[in-house]
Fold each of these.
Amino acid sequence: MADQNEPLKLIRMNEVEATEIDWLWYPYIPYGKITVIQGDPGDGKTTCVLAIAAALTTGAALPESKAAAEPMSVIFQTAEDGLGDTVKPRLVQSGADCERVIVIDESEKELSLSDIRIEQAITLTGAKLFILDPLQAYIGADVDMHRANEIRPVLKRISAVAEKTGCAVVVIGHLNKGANKSQYRGLGSIDIQAAARSVLTVGRIKGKPYTRAIVQGKNNLAPEGAAIGFELDPATGFRWIGTLPVTIDELLSGIMPERDSTYDRAVDFLKAELADGEKAAAFLFEKAASKEIQERTLRSAKQALAIPSFKRDKKWFWGALPQQKNE
């Protein structure tokens, strides 16, 4: 119960300074916020995250980014993979500057999301990215991740650390098998995904054993980005392969529609129609139908192009083609 003697404090919005969102990787990973990257075991989510970290340590450009950034330090905590036999080889294979990859020593005391050492390490090293793999291992021994009242305070604390330091926090998680909708596939309380500003899901592309996709299923800060593909070939290792025409629901269901000339025409249609600005969704569906492009195909092309949608005067609109951005 709140202290009855505690003075009431009010914030008037005219006194709040508006600020812009800074991005580690636009529009996938924001600075100062939590990003969830989830997937089934063996689908390559940790390998993908390590490839992202490796690029950041050398200043290499990430997929769909126009330019590289300055090399930065990354903190990587893992409770599943050995540092010497798994993490280090993957970093070396990805070309990382391993001097910029830092691990908080847990030999004497295990780390948790509430641990003060997280903020201390970020501040001391100037790290721009903090990674926890997997989230389930760092919740805390006395916290039930399926209970909202227990998980919320923990997430609030790590969110506060991210905001205070400006560091991007990425938590890696597993998927559950019971839910149909993408927002309920993350393991644990729905509050975990609610606390994240961006949720990315890594999965296999049906019929292509070495191909994976990282698809954005939630973005509170910008239009959802296009699906990014990568390969995990035993012979050649990790390799980015550009954008892929797959939606989050297609990835999770394993039902991959055939991509033919109709899909390509849908992409070209949207590029042409939205080149000069937003259009009403109903207008686009009607015009696409006249060109024998089905609504489902048009929606798949929309997600691949990362086209935003919004409601105005009780009508849905699709926005102009987003400009690529790297901040």
Amino acid sequence: MTTTQILAPTDADVRALAAEIGRVAAAHDAVHDRDATFVVEAYAAMAEHGYLRLAVPAELGGLGASMRQVLLAEEELGRWSGSAALSAAMHLYLTLLQGWRLRHGAADAEAVLRRVADEGLVLATSGGSDWVSPTTTAVPVEGGYRLDGRKVFCSQAPAAGVISTSAVLGRPGPDAVVLHMGVPMAAPGVRIEETWDTLGMRGTASHDVVFDGVFVPEGKIMGKRPYGVLAGPLLVAAIHFAPVVSAAYLGVARGAVEEAVRLAARRPATSVRAVGEMTARLRVARWALHAAVAEIGEDPPADEATLLAFMTAKRHAVTEARAVTDLAMEVAGGPAFFRGSPIERAYRDVRGGPFHPLTPDATVELAGRHALATS
């Protein structure tokens, strides 16, 4: 299948596309996991077959997939390779975000989306380290700002052309302002420091990105918000991030379940109840994620209720992915304990899910505050 033939993709199309990438990624996953090296073969296949333009509107040269279809694709890819799916999730949610900005009148969004479609531009984010209170500073200079600081957890940094990031203007505190902008990775003063050596998701190459006197023109500032507040551009980003990353982790859990069932079918002493529990829990978690998208819609409002809906689904997805993969380890037995087992790798990869903001605890706190405030 060549993706250039897809004008209005069906669900089957996006799953087939993801599986095509996944087969390539799976062939190299063990090496990248062992060495903590980037999933370059998967990204080459994504570039060849158009996976990274999946969420770009068709009229701008993309495949025109909906958010729901992006989730289907990411779940399928996660089944083959957690690192490839999570890396791609960071780019895909940002393209969905740019589509949202385009629909809501952002003058620069169309150019970004066309670059993704025409040039293969890869978008990265430093949101996991920045969140509401970035430590990177922005100092006014003639024509713009000077950025200085370090970003951690920058997934797919080696492949990125632009990183979506933020910096604090003024002394950090209630009176400060946070600026949001996209910074070219080739800009003077930007460098990658290879720090990624972790328990799981080792192929994402989520290295540190350092800004050392990086100039950002005033016209490239995409938005502003109060320091320490989840609002403005960060709120819209979080709303699009949550469902996409959730699908990647559910895909990892799905791959572990399928492998556990394959191994269990050969063993007469297998616990049928344990197999039923892990398959049922995975199915309900998937229902929750897709129900949240169905409830909110494809053009989500930028408000707390939307954030809470998607973060609640994300909390369920990542915690159930971890629980289900634990069950898969038990069902498969000793073979899953060996390095090289896809279940062993999945067992480690799903541990990353709860670290992404909002964390599971922060999500239930948000749910409690929202319920009290709206009662």
Amino acid sequence: MLSQEEIQELAALGTATVYEASGRKGLVEAGFVRLPEGSRAAGPAFPVLCAQGDNLGVHAAMAAVRPGEVLVLAMPEPEPVALVGELLATQAKARGVAALLVDGAVRDADGLRLLGLPIWARFVSPRGARRERVLGLGTPVWVGGVEVRLGDYVVLDGDGVVVLPRERAREVLQRARERAEREAALRARFARGELSVDVYGLRQNLREALAEAERLRGGEDG
């Protein structure tokens, strides 16, 4: 289990670095609306399997979720039904939830932006949900082709969402740190004017393409 400081480090490292460090695994293959813009978060998952078009499970989750967790809400099939609105999001924020990942819709988008709780939702729609059934609290769910289990780590930012199995969390965090250090060194070299084709040893493979570009440029100059 990661400490709060390590979880904050995951959020700062971001999805791209964590995804590469994990061996390019755990990427949620779905587009999400991020509210508010600029949000980033990470935390252990509390998955909720809602019945189709039904958010009773979300209401139940407010009594079960723990501070710092990412509430992951899914249905058997994603559809633009609002599982969360401003009232439920207000409860989640008061409970100390780190973020919401909603494989469905949210509504009251303007209010959610002002609330400030980090939210990633597949849809935004005013269409309301029923409150009739709960399929599972803390049971695994599938989001964008990735299984999310209780305690798996979810990293969310402007690039998307990555799920990190809890068994690999510390290993991947260390690899992500090392990758970030390498990228910082490369960023400094590129800022000084070095080129990736030289740093990565790509110039030889690109010799013909670069020569063709020079030939065409020479034709323009003429």
